[in-house]
Amino acid sequence: MFTALLLAGGVMLLIAALFAGLLGIAKEKLRVEEDPRIGRIQEILPAANCGGCGFAGCADFAKAVVEERAPVNGCPVGGAMVAEAVAAALGVEVVRTFPYRPVIHCGAKAYQKMGRVPYEGVKSCVEANVVGVTQACTYGCLGYGDCALACNYGALHMVDGLPEFDYDKCTGCGACVKACPRGLIEQIPFKRDRMLVVACANREKGKSVKEVCTVGCVACSLCQRLSNDLFKVSDNIARVDYDIYTGDEDMSNVLDKCPAGVLVYFGKPKPEYAKELAEEEKATAAYAP
Fold it and tell me: Which of 23, 45, 175, 283 could form a disulfide bond with 150, CB atoms 3.0-4.6 angstroms apart?
């Protein structure tokens, strides 16, 4: 009996050793050599794993860059310095691009949103959007700050029912874009420190817009006619064409003539205008109902 057990144990050990050997051979035969540049690029990246590049994490992005499925400057967190380092590791040149930063297509502050009703549910934009009866405009910002909670860099906070962006801290990761259940936040190319935005997303006709918001776009197309088509009006809403808009254009005529006052600058004002704008904002806040 004891001899039989020893024999069985020996056979099992022999089979295990045989399988281990076969697995070792298979590992060597089937091993896929990883390009060493992937590891070097991954070391360069900031390890934020935010997904702003469009990939699951920094490791996937590094592999995609080496395989030429992603641009060397595709990391929004790393910015220009990381892009240059990645390009140097690959022996290529960096093609100049503009940083993409978030803006919101809604300019209605809490006191400008009409038809607001008491909401006792979870203070979340996602939850309130499902309920759908917290305010008259079904396109406007709900104001509960899901975007601010999603930001890992403290780059935005809620002011008067709207997110306010701190572009000095913003990395352009896109977390706030994904967090907005109404798709109001968009990343645009900041070709200059200050970019013009249509702060509205209501696609109803003008009369219906005015019934739910005091600062909604009425799609009058005046901005399009006055700006040499820098604006495009479609589906009852105006949008800036950022492919041709540089940020250097004189838009004062368009701003003055817009009947809804829905055109808003995002970013830093020029130094000569900063004090004047700060005084205007202070005055507006003082007289807000």
Answer: 175
283 exposed, middle or buried (CB, 10 Å; 0-12, 13-18, 19+)? exposed
Yes or no: say if 21 and 27 are a contact pair by the CB < 8 Å rule: no
| First-to-final CA distance of the chain | 96
User: What is the spatial distance between Cα 122 and Cα 127, in angstroms, rounded to a whole number?
Assistant: 6
Contacts of 50 (CB under 8 A, 6+ apart): 76, 77, 152, 171, 173, 174, 175
Tokens coding 14 = 């022999």
As a whole number of angstroms, the distance between CA 223 and CA 140 comes to 21
Contact at 8 Å (CB) between 255 and 231? no
Domains and CATH numbers, the chain: 39-44+54-97 (no CATH), 100-287 (3.30.70.20)
Closest Cα to residue 247, out of 99, 79, 83, 76? 99
User: Cα(85)–Cα(170) distance, rounded to whole angstroms?
Assistant: 21
Give per-residue pLDDT as tens, 50-102.
888 878 889 999 999 888 888 888 888 887 788 889 888 888 887 767 888 99
Q: Around Cβ 252, how many Cβ atoms within 10 Å?
A: 8
